Structures are given as C-alpha cells and as structure tokens.
Amino acid sequence: MKKNFLFLSYTDEGGAGKANVNISKALLSEGHSVEFLVSKKTTNETFIKEINKNIEKKQVKKSIFERLINKIINKFKRKKTNPIFDTKYCYYNIDESYSNISLEDILKTVENKPDIIIGGWISHFINLENLGKTGEYFKAKVYVLMNDMAHLTGGCHYNWGCKGYENNCYPCPANSNISYLQSQKNLFIKKDSIERYNIEVIAGSKENIEEISNSFLFKKQNDIKLINGAIDFSLFNDKRRDIAKKAINISDTQKVILSGAFYIPDPRKGFKELQKTLALLNDILEEKSKKITFIVIGNNCIYNFKYKNIDFIHFEGIKHQTLYSLIHQAADVYVSPSLEDTGPAIVIEALACGTPVVGFEIGFVKNFIEDDYNGFKIHKDDFHTFAKKIYNILFDSDNESLRKNAIETVKQSFSSNYINKSFSS
Predict the structure, then answer these.
(1) 53 pLDDT exceeds 80?
(2) Residues 20 and 121 sit within 8 Å (Cβ to Cβ)
(3) How far apart are CA 385 and CA 364, in angstroms?
(4) 117, 166, 208, 369: which has the fewest Cβ within 10 Å?
C-alpha cells in the first residue's frame, strides 16, 4: 500500500541531511509520495521544500533611554543564560521547549495529508512537541530517525561514551557547570511529548538498537525499526572502475587510498589522529620502496597529508555526484578514521563502489566490515595495525574478492526495497 510521507530535516546537505534525502528518494522509487521540509534548501530536488515561515517584524519606535535599558538587560541575559559547552558533544538542542517552526508553518507548506511523519536532523528546526502536534493534526504516525544521538539525549548529538541518556542526563559532561540542569529539563520535556503523541524512534545502525533499549526516553518501545540508510546503486557502483583513475588524472598503476567527511576538522571524524596512521604507513612505504596517492573529499581540510611516499590530493566539497562516485571507484581502499559516528555514510558509498574499507571499529565499520572479507576493523587508537592493514589491502590482498564482497555487503541492507518493507506494516 502506497503511503504519503512527510520528512522534516533542518538541512538537505551534510552527512545527516544527505542520508535523509537518500532515504526519501528510496521511498519515492517504491511509489510512495514524499514531501521533505527544510529550513534552507540547497539542492534542486523537487520533493524538497523550504518551510513557509511568515514572520512579521514590527518596528516600534523607542526612546534613547528605553533602547539603552534594553541593551543592558539583553547583555545581562546573554551572560546569564548562554552556557559554554565542550564543542565535541555538538550540544545544539539547548532548549527543547523552543521550536523554530510551528504546526501553522507546516500547514502553509505541505500539499498532501501525510500518513507517516519522520523527523530526522531537527535541531534548530522543530521540537518534539510541534512534531507530535503535526502528527495529531493529520492523524499520522510520528517517528524520529537517529542520524546521531540527539533524539536520545538532553541536548548532545554525540555522547562520547556518556551514559547520562540512560537516566536523567545529569550531570552533563558537555557543560563544565555542575549545577547545569537544562539537559535534564530537556529530557523530561521530550519524554512528555513522546508519551503524549506516541512518538517512536527508528535506529540508524545496529548499535543504536541497544542504545534505544537502554535509553530513558524510548526503553519502553517494543518494536524498533532499523534503517541504516539508502544507496542509489545506479550512481554508486563499480561500472566505471576501469576508467576512474584516468578520469581524475591518476595513473592506472598508482595505488590510491580515499577518505572524506563533510567538515574535515570535526574532531569526531578523526582526521587529526589519521596523521599518525599515515606517518606510520609512510614508513612502511619507504621501507618497501613504494608510493601511493591519498585523496581527501571534504570542506576545510586544515591538515597537510603529504608525505615523502604519499602524494596528497584534496577535493573541496564535491557537488557533481558522477565525479564523487568516480573518485570512490578510483580508490583501492577507503580509510575511515571516525572516532564517534553512527555511520559515516561514505563508508557504505565506498563499499557500493567495490572499494574495501579499513577503519576504527565504530558505526558502519563495526556493523558491516568483516576482516579480510571486505576490509578490516581496527581497535580504536591502534595506529600501527591501521597502517599495516591499509598496506595489506593495497599490495598483499586479493583485490577482486574484496571488491566483490564489498558490493554484496550493502546490496540488501541499503536497498529501497528494504526501506519499503520497514513501513509495509
């Protein structure tokens, strides 16, 4: 039975935005209707719409004295109410009682009555209360999809091992002020909305299922859907692998490793630590008298990954998807240095292109990589083994088998049919 889906996500770009767009495309390919609402549209996809917010700004003439008093009050408020967070936690959900958009804003934008509503990356966009109200208005089932940990916590998108989300999010390591109670307050506001509107969560990885089952917010949820993501196999495949290196001006005989992220300096993506692995790899290459090329895809690459035996090529955020796929096919191995991640999606894109993966044992690497079958899993901070396994795949492995196994790994779990079945009941 075909359904109408309403997807809400702050953005259609970046890792989470792109993942949500791909899931929507998979639903469309299965014959469903999808309206995808964002705060700011960056693509030309016709099913994606910017939310229609009509905000009237009224200018009131005030005296010089009133303006001065307001300025002093606002300055005091900012000092008092703006807590300082450890940036690695990505604490974006500062106040769950506040929502940038309302049910009225949504009604001005949507054209079809949804059967299912999904909230993806919704920080700075919509809170659970207004998401639930939208479901109540349309008599639609409401889900939130885990792109990270935000739907389980009192504010953090990445918990870095903190188990506060299992109880009451107090004390909060994201804030150095021990008396900071907003995380706890946010959690209880979310709990109220979840119970009032029967909101359920969808896992984005196998690890998420255990996290959901242990969470304060969703531990009573019996049936947990799992949607790892979706891949456009007409784009991500190995059909142009034979010409891929030449297409990006690299010799066919040159060995290539690839890595990438939307924002390279993000500490959880591990590119700073990757320098240790590459330095060790360079030592091995020097000893063996071999040279390779390292390609990085992503914005704001602040690191110089060029070594004596490693050439370095950087592609700043690629918009052209055919080129993006070709670079994946040109690589002999994909390197995933992520330290804290639900995915990343680029791991699955690499596998779909027949590129084996070596990475730290978290997220999709932990879930989908099998040693010496489609790559290698590395224990966190084991940089020596990381370097050795990259070298092994480049020079000492049966690459044809690895490539074939890589493709087979993602065929089922990331197909549009798999996502369709998740909502068939």
Answers:
(1) no
(2) yes
(3) 19
(4) 166
